[in-house]
Structures are given as C-alpha cells and as structure tokens.
Amino acid sequence: MENLYKIRVISVIDIKVISVTGGFDLKNIWIIVSLILLLLISGCTAPLKAVTSGDTEGLPVKTAPPPEETTVILPTTFTVEIDNFKFIPPQVDIAKGGTVTWTQKDSYNHTVKSAGFDSGELSQGQTFQHRFDEIGVYDYWCNLHPTMKGKIIVK
Known about the structure:
Number of domains: 2
Number of helices: 1
Distance between the termini: 101 Å
Strand content: 25-35%
Oligomer: single chain
Strand order of the largest sheet: 4-3-6-7
Helix content: 10-25%
CATH topology of the largest domain: Immunoglobulin-like
Shape: elongated
CATH class of the largest domain: Mainly Beta
Low-confidence stretches: 7-21
C-alpha cells in the first residue's frame, strides 16, 4: 500500500491538504511543515559576534572628516543706533583698528561713555565715532540713563 500526499501551499501560514491517504493525520503534517519552515528561516541568519573593546579586527572603520578651517572677517566699521532707550545692537564684534559710529535716533538726549571715551550729550540726529586700536572688551553706557548698556569686543 502506497501513501500519497498532495499538498497545495496557499501561503506560508495556510496549507491545505487536497487528499491524504495513509496513516498521517492533518496535525502531524502541520508539525512537519512548521519544522521545515523553521529550519529554512533559521538558516537565513548569521550568528552575531560579540565585540569587546580590543576586538575590532575586520570591522568597518568610520572616521569623521577633519574640521574645516573657517576664517571670520570682522568688520572695520560698524554703526550702533540709539533708539527707544537702547543701544542696537547691544554688542558689537569689530576688528582691531575699526571704528564704531553711534547714531542717536531717540527723541531724548543720550551719551556714549566708557573708560576710554565719552560722547557728551547727543541729541536726535547727532552721531559719535570712536576708533578702537587695542584688542579688548569695552563696556559702555549712557550717563543719563544707567540701564542703557552696550559692549564692544575688539579682536
């Protein structure tokens, strides 16, 4: 007596037995097919190798590109506006030997005062200039309105 099995695979999950003659039941066929699929799937993966701190042979090496050199060109002239009880901008970076011009646009009088310079009172429309020949940080303020402060950084 010969055992013939005809199986049609509809999908990986859905297997239908068309005709079964012999001593196997449907449950046994499901177990066999499942084991075959498990073996096929497990053969598709390679074992992972644990890497210790000194064990890097054969691994790809990625290095960061060298940093690009950037050159910052500082201005040699800059204008600061005095408006609405503020120095705008409040901080300026300028090259050594550069000149800053303060333009008074406010309707109230103001001053530009620092340890190395003093504009005196400026009314609306007036300007004041100062040349910065030494590298350093120059804090300045308005003598008439002490909350008005600014900073010049000479590089």
